[in-house]
Amino acid sequence: MAGIMERKKTKQIKVGNVHIGGDSPISVQSMTNTKTEDIESTINQIKKLENSGCEIVRVAVPGEEAAKALEKICQSSKIPVIADIHFDYKLALFSLDSGVSGLRINPGNIGAKWKVEEVVKAAASLEVPIRIGVNAGSLEKELLTKYGGAVPEAMVESAKTHIQILEDLDFHNIKVSLKASDIDRTIKAYTLFSKISELPLHLGITEAGGLYPGIVKSSIGLGLLLSQGIGDTLRVSLTRDPVEEVRVGFEILKSLDLRQKGVDIISCPTCGRCKIDLFKLLEDVEKELVGINKPVKIAIMGCTVNGPGEAREADIGIAGGDGEGILFKKGKVVKKIPQDKMVEILVKEVKEMVLGKN
Ligand code: SF4
Question: Looking at the structure, do residues 165 and 67 belong to the same domain, yes or no?
Fold first, then answer.
């Protein structure tokens, strides 16, 4: 594979105020892990996700209480809320009534045709899209028998069957995901599907694992798909605070130059020349700058020998010395700063730069 391929043009849909597909930016979403009926905790987690740059949030709707909680949750959320529903058409109707901006439900699992029709009618009248979420772990029995297992072809056929149900009801406001817990099947399923459909795609590796395996699997799996031009929105799954999922999602997009959002920090691995606690400095600066949305490139380097030179492309940076450091902008030294003031001064300078005062 050579470089990043041109993005496949899919049909554009809208989840609340966020466009997905077509030439709209690839959006980053996450999912709350609070009990949805615990309104306060769920709203608090959504606020944290908003602050981390999350653009769409999904909440599980396992029962009526959760569906009823959605009204308040949707009212307080600044980002579109998607209801994640399995099987129960009533929960889908409740959620739509509560003001959700999207549904994740597989029409083939709803049951009687009239139930599907009710959900589709309500979603259509509110212009709420439906995501068909195919999961290798829960494929229909007939498909498992037909294909001898949860192979990518079976996943694609499952998606096609669910799509057909919606399209037969003249509902076309659809996006699709085809997730497996391993990279190989996920890539094959999305690649196969992308060849036969113009529908926008939600990317994800499901149950990717804890922090390290999750980040690695998601970066390779989603990275390979994105570099082939496939994918319109994504969710990184981690057994962690969902804020980490958002962070990883944007890092994947930024590293492929598909989005420019927030700070891009380059930092050295440190070596015997470093005389400051660079790990702590980096961690503190990252924490302080989480909410910044404008792109700014920052360098945090261990020493002045190579620091400013290695980080010439950075807008601003620090290179450590002995108990102090130098602040530099675009590779040029600006001033010396004491170690205990590094975080404060760098953060202040970056904020001023972002606000256009610098
Ligand atoms: Fe070592 Fe300095 Fe390079 Fe960091 S910038 S790796 S401390 S030489």
Answer: yes
Nearest CA to ligand 1 atom 6: 270
In whole angstroms, give the CA distance from residue 251 to residue 214: 13
Q: Are 256 and 28 in contact (CB under 8 A)?
A: no
* Ligand 1 centre distance from Cα of residue 269 (Å): 7
Q: Among 197, 220, 255, which residue terminates a domain?
A: 255
248 with 278, same domain: the answer is no
Which residue minimizes the CA distance to atom 1 of ligand 1? 271
From CA 197, how far away is CA 192, in angstroms rounded? Answer: 9
Rounded Cα distance between 306 and 113, Å, is 68
Please count the structural domains in the chain. 2
3-state DSSP assignment of residue 38: coil
Ligand 1: nearest atom to the Cα of 303: 2
Q: What is the pTM of this model?
A: 0.87
Assign residue 293 the CATH number of its domain.
Answer: 3.30.413.10
pLDDT tens, 158-196? 999 999 999 999 999 999 999 988 899 999 999 999 999
* CB of 274 shorter than 6 A to ligand 1: yes
Give me the domain span that covers residue 329.
263-354
Final residue belonging to a domain, choices 204, 234, 255 = 255
Q: Which token pair is 297? A: 């490139």
Distance from the CA of 320 to the center of ligand 1, in angstroms? 9
Both structure tokens of 189: 């399923």
Residue 90 pLDDT grade (very low, low, confident, very high; cuts 50, 70, 90): very high
Q: Does 156 sit in the ligand 1 pocket, CB within 6 Å?
A: no
The answer, yes or no, to whether any atom of ligand 1 lies below 6 A from the CB of 302, is yes
Q: Each residue of 314-358: pLDDT tens digit?
A: 899 999 988 889 998 887 889 999 999 999 999 999 999 887 754
pLDDT tens across 271-315, in order?
Answer: 998 999 999 999 999 888 877 878 899 999 998 877 667 777 789
User: Does residue 279's CB lie within 6 angstroms of at least one atom of ligand 1?
Assistant: no
